Amino acid sequence: AWTTADGAPRSAIEHVVRDSAGYAWVASLAGVARFDGARFVSVSTVPARRFAPDGRGGFWVLTSGAPSPPL
Question: With the C-alpha atoms ordered 9, 53, 62, 68, is the resulting torsion angle positive or negative?
Answer without folding.
Answer: positive
